[in-house]
Structures are given as structure tokens and as C-alpha cells.
Amino acid sequence: MTTSTNNRMNALRSVLEEQFQRHTTELTTLSTYGTVPEHNGHDRQTVLARIEATRQALADTANALKRMAEGTYGRCERCQQDIPLERLEIRPRARFCVPCQQTSGR
Q: What is the DSSP string of 8-28?
């Protein structure tokens, strides 16, 4: 791995760690308000939907960090080809390369 690639991967790790922290904080806040009938003008269903979306984002971020630790980050889960760094920089939690993402419809 070149120094430039290594630096870019370290930057991605930092982004993912920041996202993990932000999602954790948001989930804590939303969970607290999830028991309140209305929060910031949002009905209970909206708050519950945001809780679920934040849980999924947190799980996806944790999974990306786990893949980094295991050395499989940046490899497509379907075709096993490398995911271009440019894609990972745009979408750090990406699990698939663009062709496989389009095929799976996710």
C-alpha cells in the first residue's frame, strides 16, 4: 500500500469513527425522545422511524470498522474485487462495488 493510499485509508477510518460517535449520540437522544408523544414538531412515528434509520446507520458503520480491523474493508462482499477508494471516500460504509450495488438494488 502506498503512503498516499495509507493516508486515505487512515482518513476513512477517522470519518467512520466520527460517524460512529455521531450516530451513537443521535440514537441516545432520539431514544430518550422516543417515549415522548411529540418532539421538535415530529410525531411519534417520525421519531421512531429516525431511531430505526439511526440504528441501521450505526450498525453499518460498526460493520465497516470491523471490516477495517479484519483487513477486508474496501473489498466488495459480492465479487471480492477492490472497491475504488474514490467510492469509499464518498460512501465510507460501502459494502459493494458499483456494478454489484446496481445488481443487488441496495
A: HHHHHHHHHHHHHHHHHHHHH
